[in-house]
Automatic annotation (TrEMBL):
It is found in: Cell membrane. This is Putative cellobiose ABC transporter permease protein. The lineage of its organism: Bacteria, Bacillati, Actinomycetota, Actinomycetes, Micromonosporales. Coiled coil: none annotated. Belongs to the binding-protein-dependent transport system permease family. It comes from Actinoplanes missouriensis (strain ATCC 14538 / DSM 43046 / CBS 188.64 / JCM 3121 / NBRC 102363 / NCIMB 12654 / NRRL B-3342 / UNCC 431).
Length: 283
């Protein structure tokens, strides 16, 4: 008689080659950030010296003081604008995309699949093709040169709708929605009390991707805010790098200051982000 023994799954461990490859990729990926920090903490002599220095200096506060003290860049206001734009766009994207994803995943209405196909189809259209029409629309609304022109186009994204629709379809069973309806909950109540708590990991992932993409956006803010005194941080960095003579320690000191909020966001929400990615992979 054959005896079946339940064995716990064994943990898979990589060999030294796997860890060596991971370490090499980590060093290669982190080196540009480290080099940015080295230049941001150096003087002009060390930046232009040969061979180049690879050891951080002690001029970070001096270089940052020059960046934030420049009269023609207004870097502090630019960082504040980036925080406002990225924060508002992230919040609205999470709300509208999760609401639309819930509708496409769990609600039954006419032409649902056709509308979802149109949403996915918009992902194939490059953003550059709509810049002229978007600029004309913002001009008619008299929003060009204001933060509204940067915020409005990013209130909802096709990728966010598709991502939330896929996650909600697998994470929330239809029986749970029906049970809430039997208890007398309306659609918005089901969305708020049943759907949102279950999709927090997915919201964390989408929120990080949206915040980073909005923070690093350069083309559209340059077009609509490029002549104003208070652009976003990426446009301000381009102003630092403009001119006949570029002071690289200032440019990279500004880039370092613009990177700090993204690092803080990753440290705060890193656990939720990893959890959301792993849950999506398992499903």
């Amino acid at each position: 008689m054959t005896t079946l023994v339940n064995r716990a799954p064994q943990e898979t461990r990589g060999n030294w080659k796997t860890y060596a490859a991971l370490a090499a990729f980590m060093v290669i990926s982190a080196f540009p950030v480290y080099w940015m920090f080295v230049i941001a903490t150096s003087t002009d002599e060390k930046v232009m010296g040969f061979p180049p220095t690879v050891i951080p200096g002690d001029q970070l506060l001096v270089n940052l003081g020059e960046v934030f003290g420049m009269q023609n860049v207004y870097f502090t206001a630019s960082l504040i604008n980036s925080v406002i734009v990225a924060g508002v766009v992230t919040a609205t994207t999470l709300f509208f995309c999760s609401l639309a994803g819930f509708a496409f995943a769990k609600l039954r209405f006419r032409y649902r699949n056709a509308l979802m196909f149109v949403v996915i189809l918009t992902l194939t259209v490059p953003n550059q093709l709509g810049v002229v029409a978007l600029y004309i629309l913002m001009a008619r609304l008299d929003w060009n040169g204001t933060l509204l022109a940067v915020i409005a186009p990013g209130l909802v994204t096709a990728f966010g709708v598709f991502y939330m629709r896929q996650f909600i379809s697998h994470a929330i069973p239809d029986e749970l929605i029906e049970a809430a309806r039997i208890d007398g909950a309306l659609t918005l109540r089901i969305y708020w009390t049943v759907v949102l708590p279950a999709i927090r990991p997915a919201l964390a992932v989408l929120g990080l991707l949206t915040f980073v993409a909005t923070w690093n956006d350069f083309q559209w803010p340059l077009i609509t805010l490029g002549g104003t005194d208070f652009p976003t941080s990426m446009v301000a960095l381009s102003d630092l790098a403009s001119g006949n003579y570029v002071i690289y320690r200032r440019v990279l000191a500004g880039a370092f200051a613009a990177t700090v909020p993204l690092v803080i966001l990753l440290l705060i929400g890193g656990r939720q982000i990893v959890r959301g990615i792993m849950e999506g992979a398992l499903k």
